[in-house]
Amino acid sequence: MAAVDVIKSCLDSIALISEHVEGAILYLDSGCTESFQFTGAFPVLLELGARDICSLEKMSSLDSVVNWNSNSDPAWKIVVMTSRLLSDAHRYILRCLSTHKGVRQCTVFTSISELAQSAYPDSPLGPDAFHEYEILLLQDYEEIVKKIQKKASHSDVSSNFQESLTFEDEGWSRLTSSEEDVSHCEATSSGKYLFGESHTEYLGGKLVVSVHHFPLILCPFSPKVFVLPSEGSVSEAYLSAKHEDSLSPGLPPISTGVPPDGDDVPPGALLTAHFLYHLAAKMDLKMEIFSLGDLSKTVGKIMTDMSSLYDVGRRKRSAGLLLIDRTLDLLTPCCHGDSLVDCMFSSLPRREKTTSYSSTKGSKTQHKLVPSSLQRAPLDVQIPLGKVLQEEESNTNDSRLAERIEAFLGGWDACNSSPPETVDLVNLCNKVHDGKSFLSESQLLNGSFVSSETFRGTPYMEAILDRRTKDGAVLVKKWLQETLRRQNITVNVKIRPGFATKLELQPMIRALAKSQSSLIRNKGIIQLGAAVLVALDESHSTRWNAFVSAEKILSATAGDTSQSLGAQIGDLIHKSTMLGSDGDKKTDHLQGLLSFKDALLLMIVGYILAGENFPTSGSGGPFSWQEEHFLKEAIVDAILENASVVKLKFLDGLTEELEANLNRKKSEDTKEASSDQLESDDDQWGKWGDEEEDDGKNDKKQVYSDMQLKLELLDRVDNLFKSLHKLSTVKRRNLSLREGTFSLESNFTGDSGLNKSLIYKLLTRVLGKHDVPGLEYHSTTTKPSLADQNIIMVFVVGGINAAEVREVQEALSESGRPDVELILGGTTFLTPDDMFTLLMGDSSYI
């Protein structure tokens, strides 16, 4: 029987909609774009006959001009693929229909099932959601067309266009003014062409609208590892509302043994359950569902209820599904493990988020204690190929490609200048030479990870996903060497076996990219090699290694006493504020490498470690009052001394005052220093009485102002420590962990001194056929053994990282069960910086 392959399942699903794709302008929202980037679906879509592939959020009237296929017929068919609720995508779908003339057929594919569309809180759609939406979309479109026809005789096209999009239907969002302006700008100067008779010439017929479910919108890192798109409704829906057991809208609440039910079920749990159910159905798997953690139990219950209603018909392969709350193990994603992929994702810049989707306009009962959506970091990294390929000594040929691309783009930039045919391409190229570029070379020549790219049939991403940093880099170097050898390209570089350095990798990458044909042919290994270069760069690797060293120190100290751990945390905060501004040598290897924000992340790690090693600590925190007072004072001093660079959520509303206070102190110090230089020891008359009295009043006023600011800051820091106290109690309050699930966890020790991940411990026990207390089976039938399943899918509600992928493979190898297929999935891909955002940043409940 064929092995489970998530990438193949995604591509097979695309092939099934070929009749819709052929001849159509295909619009993808940001979530679908991210998904198809990882799966390598764009060539498949073009092979199926797509006329053009465009961004839904950044649509333009010029999209219909491009035609990748030979068919020259006017575009009359639009296909929209969205990873969002129909109510959220509606305004963009409507804008597509309103912009393109002569559209006869609009097909919408959404990754959110019909049942989930109607069950989502405050959804304007009912049980027959898809059909209802078809009617509503047609109604809104016809309303816009009527407005256009009514105002067709007016000369103010901008007014016509803007008014046509100010629909007020209950439950639907409207475009922001900036988006309207962009749309109008893109519409070209000939308003009659877009909004006059030509636009409505097909009104004699009827626009045909159809809505379908397309569930396999996910981001596979390999055939057996996947996460959800960062800008899709499932990953952005909150996983917990704000209450005493919650940490972040992007993480499950602390498990207390009372899973959320009924109206208390977070939308993220609902959408996750529907996604996993339909994923299993598409892969022909019948899931035996097990869960650990309150929110995972809720997800499992929803899936079980759906299975009892809808699982009929064809026979499916049996598989086990293990659902785990991320909150049961916060330490693993907070730490900097030995993983090349984790290093790359932490080092590489990400694509900017395309736009902010607002919640439905008609929502009347939106929970006030949760955000309308959660902002996840985009998964689409931007590999700076332009910088990597650029020679040290610039010559006339090194940026010709960038020049030509930019000149072409500038030619189409008809919005703010003359029509395309009058643009002087020579002048545009000269602007690039003169440094007046409106797009940087890094923007023009960026790479991304594509999971389907292979080396002799081995997918690159799959091969390095479970590799340690050094091993993964050496493997990439071997691939580069072999590719050069097979293409008879000679590179004059000294190669050291067993190591991979920038001096070795960069010449090989440049040699493979010397010509355009070679660049295109070898783009997979070139992009991967460039990504490794960025991760190994000193600016990134030294910071990562500094974190590893600090985490080792904290882990080792946590085995002693709480006093020792508290002292180490305070020392790290102190060192983070002694960065120096003139490159002075530092006596401590951590000093100068970690910022104050980095020190706060280490403090999160320290408090979690304290909670795990001193679980009997009181509600006031794991450290004594004196130790915690020292930590608070250290943080307050650090903020006051670094106010200009400290941008943290718990300081919202206070940042400007802190910066003003710091600037005033600097100004006073400068004046005082200047005054001391000008004063003469021979002419010291002192100050008159009234002057001294006035200065005394000013001093008192200033001291009071400083004191007021410090008291307000102390209050904010107190609230920060309440959140840290909650982190330290996670293990004690989690019912699943209290029940002795990991009584033997001391036997699991990681390479960097930290404990192995929860996933590793769980799978080791499961595959060893040991009992796992707290693990719930979701069925009324006899409880099977998860270890008896040949296919096991582990899904972490809240997200995963690459170090966990390696440990999953380790657990499988150590079990001696080569017959078992393990699939690992999660809500999102987590880096330590992402965890900081969730626990202490903009996506926290701090």
TrEMBL record:
Region (Disordered): 664-701
Record Pfam families: Sec1
The organism's place on the tree of life at top rank: Eukaryota
BP term (GO), one: vesicle-mediated transport
Feature: compositional bias, Basic and acidic residues: 665-674
SUPFAM superfamilies: Sec1/munc18-like (SM) proteins (SSF56815)
Family as reported in the entry's similarity comment: Belongs to the STXBP/unc-18/SEC1 family.
Protein name per UniProt: Sec1 family domain-containing protein MIP3
Lineage: Eukaryota, Viridiplantae, Streptophyta, Embryophyta, Tracheophyta
